[in-house]
Amino acid sequence: MKQNQKLSTKQAVALRYSPEAGQLPTVVAKGKGKVAEQILQKAQEHRVPVQEDASLVEVLSKLDLDQEIPPELYQLVAEILSFIYRSDQRAENRGKA
């Protein structure tokens, strides 16, 4: 595979997070190329927020499906989830105005 082809291969990892159930963020889907595109398409169809972070995807893609994220990723994933939560709240508040 050529260098530029390798760099352009899309990757995606999906996390599930249910704090009310006492669960940590867990890898529920991951893939490259067409599989990554399908993951992103499903997220869009279901209005699931998407965060682009190539470094984080690289690390998360090494985890197994149904594996909880490791402690060293808690802070980073928490920041992303917090950003998404705040964005959702702002959008919801705009919808009420």
UniProtKB/TrEMBL annotation:
GO cellular component: plasma membrane
Gene3D superfamilies in UniProt: secretion proteins EscU (3.40.1690.10)
InterPro entries: T3SS_substrate_exporter, T3SS_substrate_exporter_C
Any GO BP annotation: protein secretion
Pfam families: Bac_export_2
PANTHER family assigned to the protein according to its UniProt record, in alphabetical order: FLAGELLAR BIOSYNTHETIC PROTEIN FLHB (PTHR30531:SF12)
Protein name: FhlB domain-containing protein
Organism: Paenibacillus contaminans
